[in-house]
């Protein structure tokens, strides 16, 4: 029975992706576009040459981390809508350290990355604390924390880090994740070393959840607070810890943008959407760290490939948003797919 | 012969197991027919076949002599078969009437729901069978026993001639059980026929006419209740002789392990519910706490185990103060706790059996080292314990959720006893379990006592208290009001003491 369940958790996202692409094709036909050309352009946009491959991976990097941020909290029974805000504060903190401190590479880079993780963790700590001590629902608090992050960060950029400019100066080279080697290899794309950090973070999450007493407690509290208390675990402590670790992952995602892709931080008129996309990534990845990596890669591919669709096939980029929405729709309505798959299996027998 | 329902030679297979193997049950008109079997024997499968939820591989179903094919529950309903489920299917904010007519609403001429007509009909039905249900009451405002009657009315309203009761007494108080049995008798008087699914022998003896026994998926046979007795039924069900009197040597109590002085505990409403309680449990004895639910038993256990705060008094374990220590401190100082609610407290249902086995010890060697878990050690331990305690599970990796109640309880008992605690607290350890599992658990409790451990047993089943305890402490209104020896008392005296009567033996407390 468990093997059957595992099969399902793997097959449902895969099946949803195909269904999403299929329905996307139908929408293209109805709107008068050629779906084959459309998808060919999408493919070229994502994997056409070394440059697009580099950009696809770059796009995937922060999505892996925000996906982990949501998945981690979810595995412990918490819904972290605050990844968005955690990304912004992580971004800000890492760039701040990248600009303000003068240190050799070996100290400066880790310090800047750590600053991002700590800032994100702090942003997760507040809702965790409120939930643990006062029972305030984390969804409400994390949504509010997103707005606080956005506006506080914009204000700091304008009035503290710069004199009313819309973006900061660039970080010192000693704090940069950018890599000439990776960039040259991919025809000057913005690919940076962050992808290694993101992949490493996925392994870390798997290790914490599956192989440590911390993960054992976190999951137990998520599944059953009463039994956890009975077994002597500190329920409140675990809620806070879970939100801090989740926030740390999202903060790292921000650091990837600040230290890798952009090298600075700019005043934002709205959210980055990295945190919100992370919710979809976690859902598609079934809250499994390796599933998250694959889902993030798919989303990175779709988003990067979408750039080519208007010029290559005359299909508007918004179509990719529709496809992503469809995929999420199919995952969320997994009951239909479960039913279809079971049916399929039975008849195959 | 005049049968309303016949299920002949039914066979139902699931991948890997035969759930029903050649089972025959024949229901006469106007009888109460018990279907007896241990948990997992195949009772529910058989009834789901009758209800059209499963299709049998072999066998025939006849209704009033006519062969029928029941492919879904609607057909069963149309044939006059109704089921009173163990877990009620009611909409809490709706009234009794709204719940009963749901899906079959009577309409007025303009198409709106004719609530008045429905209420009248339900009132009539209720009066006719003595159900005393108020059709206008909201479900959330009425007791569990009443809710069950609403379920009964639901089947009657839909024209059921045959009612299937699935473990109906599991959720009821003793008084409610008596009333339910009376209702069942009045149903048959009015010409209905009843199939009663249960593993409680007493109730079968009291109310049924005949009984069909199934064991491990096989039909064992049908007996007339008039020609049999509890012992025969039990051995038919389990497949061997079952002793209801637990064999044990006289206790040899030694030094006091648990000492409670003048304990006060508040309940969820912040009112004192344990009020100056004194209690002593000594090594090598089982002390049973008898009392009616709600007299502070749950709060007493929670205070001992650190799950609730004591706001007065002292709890000593081996002469060390454990009052208001954290649950982990209490556990580590030598307390094992088999909790009253095994799903809420005893297990993390979404964890595997193996992970549940180390729920109290996962942070210790050898199950983890420097916060790194050692899965191999954990699952080896689990393998060892499920063998030793006869926990029937496909593997140690199976989720606790997937096990039967008896096996879940055995896993908890294995975990708690294996740590060899000086004090073992067993709160309602056999609730909802079948005879085989109850016997096993009682044996284990007595084994612990014989090893020189102190055992504190809390149960609402007087039989269990009388049978297992070496000393009975009667709890009433937050205090121990009497200490009696099981061989010197009986259910009557205990019942009086539990109700707060002070005429006999009171004042002997402490």
Descriptive overview:
- The complex is a heterodimer of chains A (349) and B (510).
- Helices cover 78% and strands 0% of the residues of chain A.
- Chain A has helices at residues 2-30, 35-47, 50-75, 83-100, 105-134, 138-161, 180-185, 194-211, 213-223, 225-230, 235-262, 274-284, 289-306, 309-313, 318-332, 334-348.
- In chain A, helix 2 crosses helix 3, helix 3 (50-75) packs across helix 12 and helix 9 (213-223) packs across helix 11 (235-262).
- The longest helix of chain A is centred in the middle third of the chain and has 30 residues, at 105-134.
- Chain A is globular, with a radius of gyration of 21 Å.
- By secondary structure, chain B is of the alpha/beta class.
- Chain B folds into two domains: 3-238, P-loop containing nucleotide triphosphate hydrolases (Rossmann fold, 3-Layer(aba) Sandwich), CATH 3.40.50.300; 256-498, Rossmann fold (3-Layer(aba) Sandwich).
- The longest helix of chain B has 16 residues, at 174-189.
- The chains are: A mainly alpha (349), B alpha/beta (510).
- At the A-B interface, helix 9 and helix 10 of A face helix 10, helix 11 and strand 18 of B.
Total helices of chain B: the number is 17
CATH superfamily of the largest domain in chain B: P-loop containing nucleotide triphosphate hydrolases
Overall tally of domains of chain B: 2
Pairing-aware structural class of the strands and helices of chain B? alpha/beta
Radius of gyration of chain A: 21 Å
CATH class of the largest domain in chain B: Alpha Beta
Count of strand segments of chain A: 0
Major sheet description of chain A: none
Which regions of chain B contain 5 or more consecutive residues with pLDDT less than 50?
504-510
In angstroms, what separates the terminal alpha carbons of chain B? 63 Å
Strand content of chain B: 25-35%
Summed over residues and divided by their number, the pLDDT of chain B gives a mean of: 89
Note poorly predicted spans of chain A. none
Radius of gyration of chain B: 25 Å
State mean pLDDT of chain A (0 to 100 scale): 91
Strand count, sense and barrel status of the largest sheet of chain B are: 6 strands, mixed
Q: Kindly report how far apart the N and C termini of chain A lie.
A: 17 Å
Give the second-level CATH assignment, the architecture of the largest domain in chain B.
3-Layer(aba) Sandwich
């Amino acid at each position: 029975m468990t093997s059957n369940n595992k099969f399902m958790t793997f097959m449902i996202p895969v099946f949803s992706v195909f269904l999403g692409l299929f329905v996307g094709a139908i929408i293209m036909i109805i709107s008068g576009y050629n779906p084959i050309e459309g998808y060919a352009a999408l493919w070229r946009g994502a994997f056409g040459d070394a440059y697009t491959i580099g950009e696809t991976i770059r796009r995937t990097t922060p999505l892996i981390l925000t996906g982990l941020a949501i998945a981690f909290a979810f595995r412990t029974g918490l819904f972290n809508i605050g990844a968005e805000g955690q990304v912004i504060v992580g971004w800000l903190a890492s760039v701040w350290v990248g600009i303000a401190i003068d240190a050799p590479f070996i100290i400066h880079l880790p310090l800047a990355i750590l600053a991002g993780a700590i800032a994100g963790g702090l942003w997760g700590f507040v809702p965790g604390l409120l939930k643990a001590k006062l029972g305030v629902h984390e969804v409400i608090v994390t949504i509010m924390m997103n707005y606080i992050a956005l506006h506080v960060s914009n204000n700091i950029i304008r009035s503290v880090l710069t004199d009313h400019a819309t973006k900061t100066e660039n970080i010192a080279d000693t704090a940069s994740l950018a890599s000439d080697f990776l960039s040259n290899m991919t025809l000057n794309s913005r690919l940076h070393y962050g992808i290694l950090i993101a992949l490493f973070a996925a392994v870390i999450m798997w290790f914490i959840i599956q192989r440590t007493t911390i993960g054992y407690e976190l999951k137990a509290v998520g599944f059953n607070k009463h039994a956890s208390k009975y077994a002597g675990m500190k329920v409140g402590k675990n809620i806070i810890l879970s939100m801090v670790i989740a926030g740390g992952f999202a903060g790292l995602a921000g650091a990837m943008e600040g230290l890798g892709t952009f090298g600075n931080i700019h005043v934002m008129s709205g959210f980055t959407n990295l945190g919100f996309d992370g919710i979809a990534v976690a859902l598609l990845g079934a809250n499994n760290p390796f599933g998250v990596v694959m889902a993030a890669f798919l989303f990175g591919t779709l988003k990067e490939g979408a750039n080519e669709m208007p010029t290559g096939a005359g299909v508007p980029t918004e179509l990719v948003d529709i496809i992503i929405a469809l995929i999420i729709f199919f995952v969320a309505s997994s009951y239909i797919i479960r039913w279809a798959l079971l049916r399929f299996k039975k008849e195959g027998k | 012969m005049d049968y309303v329902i016949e299920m002949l030679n039914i066979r139902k297979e699931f991948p890997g197991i035969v759930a029903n193997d050649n089972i025959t049950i024949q229901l006469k008109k106007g009888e109460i027919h018990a279907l007896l079997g241990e948990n997992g024997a195949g009772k529910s499968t058989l009834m789901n076949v009758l209800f059209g939820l499963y299709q049998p591989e072999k066998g025939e179903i006849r209704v009033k002599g006519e062969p029928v094919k029941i492919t879904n529950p609607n057909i069963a309903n149309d044939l006059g078969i109704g089921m009173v489920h163990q877990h009620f299917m009611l909409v809490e904010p709706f009234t009794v009437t709204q719940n009963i007519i749901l899906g079959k609403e009577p309409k007025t001429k303009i198409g709106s729901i004719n609530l008045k007509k429905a209420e009248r009909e339900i009132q009539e039905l209720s009066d006719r069978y003595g159900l005393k249900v108020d059709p206008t009451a909201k479900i959330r405002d009425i007791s569990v026993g009443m809710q069950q009657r609403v379920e009964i009315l639901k089947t009657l309203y839909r024209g059921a001639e045959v009612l299937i009761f699935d473990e109906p007494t599991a959720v009821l108080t003793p008084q409610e059980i008596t009333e339910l049995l009376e209702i069942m008798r009045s149903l048959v008087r009015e010409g209905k026929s009843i199939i009663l699914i249960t593993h409680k022998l007493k109730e079968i003896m009291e109310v049924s006419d005949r009984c069909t026994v199934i064991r491990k998926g096989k039909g064992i046979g049908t007996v007339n209740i008039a020609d049999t007795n509890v012992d025969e039924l039990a051995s038919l069900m389990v497949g061997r002789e079952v002793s209801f009197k637990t064999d044990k040597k006289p206790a040899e109590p030694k030094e006091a392990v648990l000492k409670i002085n003048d304990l006060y505990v508040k309940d969820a409403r912040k009112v004192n519910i344990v009020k100056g309680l004194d209690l002593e449990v000594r090594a090598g004895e089982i002390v049973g706490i008898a009392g009616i639910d709600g007299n502070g038993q749950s709060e007493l256990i929670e205070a001992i185990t650190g799950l609730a705060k004591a706001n007065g008094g002292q709890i000593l374990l081996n002469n060390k103060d454990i009052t208001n220590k954290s649950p982990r401190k209490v556990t580590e100082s030598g307390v094992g706790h088999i909790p009253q609610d095994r799903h809420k407290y005893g297990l993390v249902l979404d964890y595997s059996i193996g992970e549940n086995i180390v729920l109290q010890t996962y942070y210790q060697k050898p199950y983890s080292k420097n916060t790194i878990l050692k899965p191999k050690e954990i699952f080896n331990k689990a393998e060892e314990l499920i063998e030793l305690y006869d926990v029937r599970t496909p593997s140690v990796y199976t989720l606790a959720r997937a096990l039967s109640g008896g096996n879940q309880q055995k896993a908890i008992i294995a975990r708690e006893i294996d740590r060899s605690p000086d004090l073992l607290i067993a709160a309602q350890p056999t609730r909802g379990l079948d005879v085989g599992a109850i016997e096993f658990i009682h044996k284990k409790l007595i084994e612990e006592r014989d090893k020189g451990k102190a055992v504190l047993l809390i149960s609402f089943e007087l039989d269990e208290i009388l049978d297992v305890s070496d000393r009975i402490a009667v709890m009433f209104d937050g205090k121990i009001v009497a200490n009696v020896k099981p061989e010197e008392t009986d259910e009557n005296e205990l019942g009086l003491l539990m109700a707060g009567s002070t005429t006999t033996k009171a004042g002997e407390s402490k």
